[in-house]
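Quick one: structure for this chain?
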Amino acid sequence: VALAIQAVYAELDFPPITDEEVEAAILAHSSADMPDRNLVADMAAADAFMAGERSSLDVVRALQRHGYEEIAANILEMGRQRVIGDYLQPSAIFDGAFHVQSAINDANDYQGPGTGYRLTGARWEAVQQIPQAKSPREFIDAQLGGPSEKLVEIGDAKAGTRPEVVVAVGPAFGSAMIKTIGELAHEDVLAAILTGVASAGLIARVVKVYHSADCAAIGYAGAQLSGSGIAIGLQSRGTAVIQKKGYEPLHNLELFPQSPSLTLATYEAMGRNAALYALGQAPPPVAVQVDNGARLRLIVKTALLHKREMEEVKDQPPVEMLFNWEPDVA
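Got it. Here's what it folds into:
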């Protein structure tokens, strides 16, 4: 498959994939094992492809010309299935022959809660008595705390009129919660972001968004208030986004979904990139190492932290925050 992708890139004049990258993709455990690439060039090629006249049929032809008949046939069939639309049936999947199986043509006998296979008796008791069981509070105790003395509310947030980056934080940030899921102190995270902004020659403004705990909504609200139209949305557990005014909430400049992998250096680079976007530049995206086991390892903690932040959601507009801090930049 890697060689097939390499052939398609060459055929469509995309930035080339080297043999070393192919080998690394086969053997890599995570993104840390992959060579660096020029992501700006990759994204420019992707944008040009989407804006041009080419389509998946050009990909199919490229694969056929290079001898990858089976892969070409599968991609062509997926395109055909998108036109047919049968996969839009409830609970639909494709079998090995691309036949759709769904709740319509392959119904099950599930009749709602309490039906179907249920654990009972000794087996159910054994499952409940797991030795490593913890209370929900124990899972997130390290992230909880009281209001920060360095971060205080000073009034309703107003729309800016000068070049700036707005750092929009979630409703529990620096108050009900004081650390990210990676146990980085909120004050340190905020200082790192503001240092990054200052290093690019801009100022930052901190606002707290109360009406939502969703990362996209927080960033979107911040972008509406930013004088430059650029904002960083930051959930209390550490997930972040760089957002631009005029974009839809789920369309962003950069997204940082794996908060356990984010370091203070990452947050500083995030602040710098946001400032460069505000200055009209197009910096390379901030590189983040991917931990393939983080989702499984921390899914319960993630859910509990989000639940705790949701408890702080209020029906009120964003508020301006004063952060008692000075940048340590030349």
